[in-house]
Amino acid sequence: MTFSVHPAKAPVCRARAIALTVALLYSAGSAAQSAPNAGQILRELQAPVDLAPPKSARPLQSGEQPAGTPPGGDVSFTVKTIRISGNAVIPDETLHALVAGLEGSTHTLNDLHAAAARITAYYRQQGYPVTRAYLPAQEITDGDITIAVIEGRIGAYRLKNQSRLSDARAGAYLETAKDGEVIRTAQIDRGLLLLNDTPGVGTARATLQPGASVGTSDLVVELTPGAAYSGSVNLDNYGNRYVGEYRLGGTLNINSPLRIGDVLSLNVLSSGKGLNYGRVAYQLPIGSDGLRLGAAYSDAVYKLGKEFETLDAHGKARSASVFAAYPFIRSQQSNLNGIISLEQKDLSDSVDATLTTTGKRAKLAAIGLQGTHYDGLGGGGFTSASLTATFGKLDILSPSALAIDAVSAQTNGGYERIAYSLSRLQKLTDATSLALSISGQEAGKNLDSSEKFSLGGALGVRAYPQGEGSGDEGYLATAELRYALPASSLGPMQLTGFIDHGSTRINHTPFAAGDNTRRLSGAGIGFTWNAPGNVIVRATVAWKLGSALPMSDVDRSPRAWVQGTKYF
Fold this sequence. Notes:
The chain has two domains: 4-57 and 227-567, Beta Barrel (Porin); 71-134, Ubiquitin-like (UB roll), CATH 3.10.20.310. The chain is 12% helix and 46% strand. It has seven helices and 26 strands. A hairpin with a 4-residue loop joins strand 17 and strand 18.
């Protein structure tokens, strides 16, 4: 980053200070030490956290009683043909293939009941929970057998709503389960899971009960109330040392204030005089199929300390955005969400000691996918992935800074980048699990500090400070072995051992002499305690691997990170 000089006459005696400022603060073309600016601070405040498993719902429960064994099962006769009747959603050929092996030979009545049970089981596997195949009363002549299918249909829909949603809004999520429709688990589960995701709803549960007529079941949906308010308060040392390592923050969610499943979210973070940040966001559902629209505004102000305190360097970063998200897939096992957003960032950095200020504005659009999947591989696991493409335009508003950028980094103008992540949590034993993850980004040109990828920090290579190793392109990989300690009255506790490694290309297109690559590695141990009272304490100690020294902070070995969070 560079500064423009105010039109006011700058004394000649300040020239040396200006040179020092540029050398220390804006050595963007190499791996030299540089202080954080508005763009980097905003990026770190917006850094994504690990994708948590989505909320689950209680599976659809059926009130159907298992059928008993019919009498006369030992009677045998020759089976010539088997005909399927009553089926509509699955074709005759598919169902007949399940029982065709009985044709042309002698079988008992129990064998035919078992054949009907195979058809019932197939329907259940395909997601039809109350469909049943059976042998109707019939006179068997010439070996012609009929197996009848009752494809269970919805008789009535009853809602027991104690949530913060209105009855009309809550009922809309299962409106596809209309009277007379064949009951399918996936159809009902999606509605239940979307309800579970909705602010103002505690849990959503559905039960199928016998209907008033043969072949029908009544769908009964029960919603428990969700919290009117939720949030957290946290204290950590995750900050950048130049704006304050120790930070106090909090979040507050006001759930469904309009009784439509909307949410108003407030977030604040402060390190004292070094950094103060606030964000407000609002989301609401559109329709009843999971589409949500939202808007957010954030404001951060900072003042540099430590080695840069005498420069009186300070700045601000503001962001306004609108966004939309839609769940293309929402099920117990797999989920896929599409996200699109538009954002404007206004960034300003000033150094009072040299009467210099740089202003920037970035406008960008992003489109992406986020997915999760549960499976039973190797004892069970959870996989998450994301892919986001960002297209933006940077305007450097200060003429002198724009001129310097034109002969150096050339970040002004249009840009694009692609960010990705992939993680796997694999169960090894009842007490141990293995977490693997990789994330990174690729860029089409040199990027502003607000769009770079960073390696260091409590969520990166933990042996290095926050903001270390920033670059236009790079990747970060982590392997973590987790062990759950034996149950205790103090609450669940977990020990971890980990190794982190990452690499960045500082500038997509180098424009200055010096090394253009950073490679950082570290290893360490961690401890997580889910304490009584909805309190989570996390502590990590990490050591560097290799000879790379930090350039954004003093060297510490080991480096420790601590965070305490109280949820309410």
